[in-house]
Design a protein that fits this description.
- The complex is a heterodimer.
- By secondary structure, chain A is of the alpha/beta class.
- Helices cover about 30% and strands about 30% of the residues of chain A.
- Chain A has eight helices and eleven strands.
- Chain A has helices spanning about 15-25, 35-40, 60-70, 80-85, 95-105, 125-135, 190-195, 220-225; strands spanning about 30, 50-55, 70-75, 110-120, 140-150, 155, 160-165, 170-175, 180, 200-205, 210-215.
- Chain A has a six-stranded mixed sheet with strand order 3-2-4-5-11-10, sandwiched between helices.
- In chain A, helix 3 links the parallel strand 2 and strand 3.
- In chain A, helix 5 packs parallel to helix 6 (about 125-135) and helix 6 (about 125-135) crosses helix 7 (about 190-195).
- Chain A is globular, with a radius of gyration of 17 Å.
- Mean pLDDT of chain B is about 70; it is low at about 1-45 and about 170-190.
- Chain B is built from one helix and 13 strands, in the order ββββββββββββαβ.
- Chain B has one helix at about 150-170; strands at about 15-20, 50, 55-65, 65-70, 75-85, 90-105, 105-110, 110-120, 125, 130, 135, 140-150, 185-190.
- By secondary structure, chain B is mainly β.
- Chain B has a domain at about 50-165.
- The two termini of chain B are about 30 Å apart.
- Classes of the chains: A alpha/beta, B mainly beta.
Chain lengths: ~230, ~190
């Protein structure tokens, strides 16, 4: 079964009401984001940055980075791009890898020093996380930062939330609908096994049941070797 | 409220049309003229805007010296670097677009370069890269690509574009002024 289904599995909990309420409360509300604040601390405002946003295009986020940093943003809208291909539950990992390389077709020499994954990983299986990040790391600079959120509730929305930046430590969550799916409840070791080369820089457990991580990509040597696509 | 560009995008005209000028001297009678009235300076001429209607398809490059609204299809390059380019809701553009300001309400597959601003309206969809000092994405728009908001990048893009366009500008002077343009696939917006 893939986590990539349009509606997601139905809630199987015997007492779904409480977890659904919690998930609904987590959605469409404003939350403090210490992880995002930590990410920004790692991006010096005087430097030029290149960001990879795996989430959808949101004007507020573009405005925010436009006002704070002289930066280049690549917006992948990964989940919708993948789901829009009609590749459903039975996708094998090879097909997923091919889709990743197609959706995230980096230009030669294109590199990033920060990645915004938001809650995308909660909607991927472990091998898919490995395949995605294995491709992303081919375009990461040494020391690049990765920001992600994992939910620890029983239920999550059927599709990834949208995260609108309110200010440097506040995000507004938005859910596309009310349908839900079980939360994979990944632990950090799950991710670390799928993302060699990353080390946790900071982690924050929020009151809304989300845990935010900022990871730093340290494996610069192998990344440079794997990219193989320097400027022409 | 009065004449915002997005409020005036009516897909009716296929030809360039000037913005209506205010009625001349409506209230007081004109004073007796003691000398010939000066012709309107070029800078005082009403700003013109061309539109490509929804039934029009253009295969080739577009260039010109006025604002443009696209409601039809364009497959090529749109080069109006000093003017406003609007892709209307029914517009389908598969091209790189150069403009001073670019507003997208329809679909674009290509890269957008603006000297001042790019705006993706909520109905807009862009698959390509945006380069402008200021980029605005309205909620609901669809975008996949890169956004380069570094003003220097926009300058570099303009300079690179200008260099690329130079050979075209230097053309052999024609011995016959009335000769028809030879651009088979190029449409020039006048």
């Amino acid at each position: 079964m893939s986590w990539f289904s349009a509606t997601g599995p139905k809630a199987g909990s015997a007492r779904p009401a409480r977890s659904e309420e919690k998930a609904a409360a987590a959605a469409a509300t404003i939350h403090q984001s210490l992880g995002f604040k930590a990410l920004l601390r790692g991006l010096r405002p005087e430097a030029s940055h290149s960001l990879l946003d795996l989430g959808p295009a949101l004007g507020a986020n573009v405005e925010f980075f436009n006002s704070r940093l002289a930066c280049r943003m690549r917006i992948a809208d990964f989940y919708r791009s993948y789901a829009g291909r009609g590749l459903a539950a039975d996708d094998d990992d090879a097909a997923f890898g091919a889709a990743v390389r197609d959706i995230l077709a980096f230009s030669p020499g294109e590199t990033f020093d920060a990645v915004l994954a938001w809650d995308l990983f909660d909607y991927l299986r472990r091998p898919q996380i490995g395949a995605l990040m294995g491709h992303v790391t081919t375009a990461l600079r040494p020391g690049a930062l990765l920001f992600l959120s994992l939910c620890y509730g029983k239920q999550i929305p059927a599709a990834p939330l949208t995260f609108r930046i309110v200010d440097e430590q506040t995000l507004r969550y938005g859910a596309a609908g009310e349908s839900q799916r079980p939360c994979p409840r990944y632990k950090l070791p799950d991710l670390e096994r799928q993302m060699p080369g990353f080390a946790v820089e900071a982690s924050f457990l929020l009151r809304n049941g989300m845990q935010e991580y900022v990871l730093v990509y340290q494996d610069g040597g192998s990344a440079a070797g794997a990219s193989g696509g320097g400027p022409a | 409220m009065w004449k915002r560009p997005e409020d005036t995008n009516k897909p009716e005209s296929l030809q360039p049309h000037p913005t209506p000028a205010p009625p001349p001297a409506a209230a007081p009678p004109p004073p007796p003229m003691t000398a010939a009235a000066p012709p309107p300076a070029a800078s005082q001429q009403p700003k013109e805007r061309a539109s490509i209607g929804s039934s029009i398809s253009i295969l080739g490059d577009l260039s010109g010296d006025e604002d443009l609204v696209v409601y039809g299809r364009v497959d090529g390059k749109v080069d109006l670097a000093q003017h406003a380019v609007t892709i209307g809701k029914s517009g389908r553009v598969k091209a790189d677009v150069f403009g001073k300001t670019i507003s997208v309400e329809g679909e674009v597959h290509g890269n957008l370069y603006a000297g001042e601003q790019i705006v993706l309206r909520k109905s807009g969809s862009v698959h390509g890269n945006l380069t402008a000092p200021r980029v605005t994405l309205e909620d609901g728009c669809k975008f996949k690509g890169s956004i380069d908001m570094d003003p220097q990048s926009a300058d570099r893009a303009r300079a690179a574009h200008a260099r690329a366009s130079e050979p075209k500008a230097v053309s052999q002077p024609s011995a016959q002024p009335s000769a028809q343009p030879s651009a088979a696939a190029a449409a020039r917006v006048q």
